[in-house]
Specification:
By secondary structure, the chain is mainly α. Helix content is about 85%, strand content about 0%. The model has no long low-confidence stretch (mean pLDDT about 85).
Length: about 170
C-alpha cells in the first residue's frame, strides 16, 4: 500500500512498466483503486521514458550518419587532390597549367561537398534536437497529466470522505 501524501520514487523503463503492471493487477485483485491507479500512472510514465530514450537513440544515429557523410566527403576530396598531384608530376611545363586548374576544381568541389555535408550534419542535429525536445515535452506533459490525475483523485477522495465520513472509519 502507498501513502498518497508521500511522493514515491518509481523505476522507469521496462522495469517500471512491469512494476506498474504488477501494482495495477494487485490493485484490481485487492479491490484497491488507488493502487491500481498508481500502477497505471507508473506504466504511463515508463512508456514515456522508453519513448524518449528511443527518440534520443534515433537522433544520435542520424547525427553519426551526418558525420560519416562529412568524413566521406573529406576522404573523396583528399583522393581527388592526390590523383591530381600524381598526374601533374608526369606532365611537361605546358601540362602544369592543366594540373593547377584541376587542383582548383578539386578544391572547389571538396569545399562544396564539405559545405553540403556540414549542412546535412547541421540539419540532422537540428532534427535530433527537435526530436529530443519533443520527447522531453511529451514526457513533461505526461508527468503533468499524471500529477493532475493524482490531484483529481485526492480531491475525489476528499469529497467522498465529506459525503460519507463514516465509511472511512
Amino acid at each position: 500500500m502507498s501513502n498518497s501524501d508521500t511522493p514515491e520514487k518509481t523505476s522507469g523503463g521496462l522495469v517500471g512498466k512491469a512494476v506498474g503492471a504488477a501494482k495495477q493487477a494487485a490493485g484490481s485483485v485487492l479491490n484497491d483503486d488507488e493502487l491500481a491507479r498508481e500502477g497505471r500512472l507508473q506504466q504511463a510514465q515508463s512508456d514515456a521514458e522508453i519513448k524518449a530514450r528511443a527518440e534520443a537513440a534515433e537522433a544520435e544515429e542520424r547525427e553519426q550518419g551526418a558525420q560519416l557523410r562529412e568524413d566521406q566527403a573529406d576522404t573523396e576530396a583528399e583522393r581527388d587532390r592526390l590523383r591530381n598531384e600524381v598526374q601533374a608530376s608526369d606532365r611537361e611545363a605546358a601540362a602544369e597549367r592543366d594540373r593547377e586548374r584541376a587542383e582548383r576544381e578539386a578544391t572547389d568541389q571538396a569545399r562544396q561537398e564539405k559545405a553540403a555535408a556540414a549542412a546535412d550534419r547541421m540539419a540532422a542535429e537540428a532534427g535530433a534536437d527537435a526530436t529530443e525536445r519533443t520527447g522531453e515535452a511529451e514526457q513533461r506533459d505526461e508527468t503533468l497529466t499524471a500529477v493532475e490525475l493524482e490531484q483529481a483523485a485526492r480531491r475525489a477522495e476528499t469529497r467522498a470522505d465529506n459525503i460519507d465520513p463514516e465509511e472511512n472509519r
